[in-house]
What we know:
The protein is of the alpha/beta class.
Amino acid sequence: MEEKKNRKPLILNGARQVGKTWLLKEFGKLHYEDVKPIEVKADGNVRSNSLSEYLNNNPEIRGIRYSMLPYIQQEHFDNIPLWAIE
């Protein structure tokens, strides 16, 4: 894919269990050599079966979660607190 300096992030928002994670994984496989899963959780509930399942099935990949929790290194991803984002 062509590199562009002013490109914008892709943000996908939608209801639960409609295929958002699957769609992004397929898009990443088709268009990129390396995919880094990033999850943002603005509320206190940080459970995410889709991210955990994806990382469990792909142990060579390390994910990032931004949430209200403090910085935590977990088995397959790092949690970075939302207040730490500049």
